[in-house]
Design brief:
This is Ig-like domain-containing protein. The chain crosses the membrane at residues 257-279, 291-312, 318-338. Residues 1-20 form the signal peptide. It is found in: Cell membrane. The chain is an alpha+beta fold and 372 residues long. It has 3 domains: 18-135, Immunoglobulins (Immunoglobulin-like, Sandwich); 139-254, Immunoglobulin-like (Sandwich), CATH 2.60.40.10; 257-343. It contains 5 helices and 22 strands. The protein has helices at 2-18, 257-282, 287-315, 319-344, 346-371, and strands at residues 23-24, 30-33, 38-40, 43-44, 53-59, 65-70, 73-74, 87-89, 101-103, 112-120, 123-135, 139-140, 146-149, 154-156, 159-160, 169-177, 182-189, 192-194, 206-208, 220-222, 231-239, 242-254. Strands 2-11-10-5-6-7 form a 6-stranded mixed beta sheet, with no helix packed on it. The protein has a 6-stranded mixed beta sheet with strand order 13-22-21-16-17-18, with no helix packed on it. The chain has a 3-stranded antiparallel beta sheet with strand order 3-9-8, with no helix packed on it. Strand 17 (182-189) and strand 18 form a beta hairpin. Helix 2 runs antiparallel to helix 3 (287-315) and helix 3 packs antiparallel against helix 4 (319-344). The longest helix is centred in the C-terminal third of the chain and has 29 residues, at 287-315.
């Protein structure tokens, strides 16, 4: 009887020394979201003295030190650099036996198995926590081609999975994918829109829906569409070391009423010039009427083409192109008025030159014949 009691007591003492606590973890593997946070569970049911506890979190695949708790405090300086400022203990809960770890700003490479090992008075136990999968970066666009009339505004769709906040998105770029080159349309970087980085052809014509960005909506508004805008656009997103993209196809750009106006003005310019020419040379003998018609003949084509150039700028042309054409059509009438006084005396001067030349020739021939 005494022997049995001794055996039971010895068994209790051995159990207390070797199995004084049991470290528990999660009930199964964890699936986490890229850029989010996750708690890796590790706890004991019997509270331990915090100053006598050492907790080591490591990855089992590389033995990388994720975090360390020792001598009553969190040892952040011992962490591997990749986990600096990302892995944290709940220090106020350690005295209650909670050694769980919070891992922030999750990355794709965080996938793997983590070991939580707890030491206390020469007794140790451990548990394993598996991050089974990190949900990848998901970017979606429009599955249909976009049709529009020239001069209209269009929206090119691009949405990033809502679990990723703008702070965790490194870059979003919209590019037009031409055969020869990729044209940068608009750039989002460091949580701000960089409009100045846009290609000159798109500057001041593109913008994000600012209020929608926190929801992961990076759709692009393209204003005053031109025929040259037709093509494929790519929305590329970089986050957590990953990248994904979506495309939008802008096609079937129809002509707007402004195009029709430009065409009509281009027809009016030569027709009006021909009509005014006919009126000047076959119209009234009244000098004032003829003068008015001549002024109209000078001005009407230039004014018509000036308006055409201005309208063309809003639908197709560049600013430099418009300024050059406008200057040409403004200076045209000035050149004509400057030449007009010279042109008035031109027929008389030509006649005088011809008569002088004819007289000189006749005199020369007379000398020649008299010599014979």
């Amino acid at each position: 009887m005494h022997f049995l009691q001794c055996v039971l007591m010895l068994n209790f003492i051995i159990s207390d020394d070797t199995l004084g606590f049991i470290v528990r973890g999660p009930s199964g593997p964890l699936v986490v979201r890229l850029g989010g946070s996750v708690i890796l569970p590790c706890y004991v049911e019997t509270p331990l003295v915090a100053e006598q506890v050492k907790v080591v979190w490591k990855r089992t695949d590389s033995e990388t030190l994720v975090h360390l708790y020792q001598d009553g405090e969190s040892r952040a300086e011992a962490q591997q650099q990749d986990y600096h400022d990302r892995a944290h203990f709940f220090t106020d809960q350690i005295q209650h036996g909670n050694f769980s770890l919070r891992l922030d700003n999750l990355r794709a490479e965080d996938k793997g198995v983590y070991r939580c090992k707890v030491y206390s008075q020469k007794v140790a136990d451990k548990t394993l926590v598996e991050i089974k999968d990190v949900e990848r970066l998901l970017v979606s666009g429009s599955s249909r081609s976009i049709s529009a009339s020239v001069g209209e505004d269009v929206t090119l769709n691009c949405s990033v999975d809502s679990h990723i906040t703008p702070e965790h998105i490194e870059e979003v770029s919209w590019k037009k994918t031409d055969e020869d080159e990729d044209i940068l349309v608009l750039l989002f970087q460091n949580n701000q829109t960089l409009s100045d980085s846009s290609d000159e052809r798109y500057r001041d014509r593109v913008e994000f829906f600012t209020d929608e960005i926190p929801k992961g909506n990076f759709s692009l508004r393209l204003k005053s569409v031109r025929t040259e805008d037709k093509g494929v656009y790519m929305c590329q997103v970089f986050a957590g070391g990953l990248s994904a993209n979506a495309t939008a196809d802008l096609e079937q750009l129809g002509f707007s009423w402004l195009h029709i106006t430009v065409l009509i003005l281009c027809i009016i310019a030569p027709v009006s010039a021909l009509l005014l020419c006919w009126l000047v040379y076959s119209g009234s003998e009244n000098q004032e009427t003829r003068l008015c018609l001549q002024v109209c003949l000078f001005l009407c084509p230039f004014i018509t083409m000036l308006l055409t150039s201005i309208i063309w700028h809003f639908i197709e042309g560049s600013l430099y192109e418009t300024i050059s054409c406008c200057m040409l059509y403004i200076l045209g009438p000035l050149r004509l008025f400057w030449v007009t006084p010279l042109a008035t005396d031109l027929p008389a001067k030509i006649l005088k030159y011809v008569m002088t030349a004819h007289a000189d020739h006749a005199a020369f021939m007379a000398v020649v014949y008299s010599g014979k």
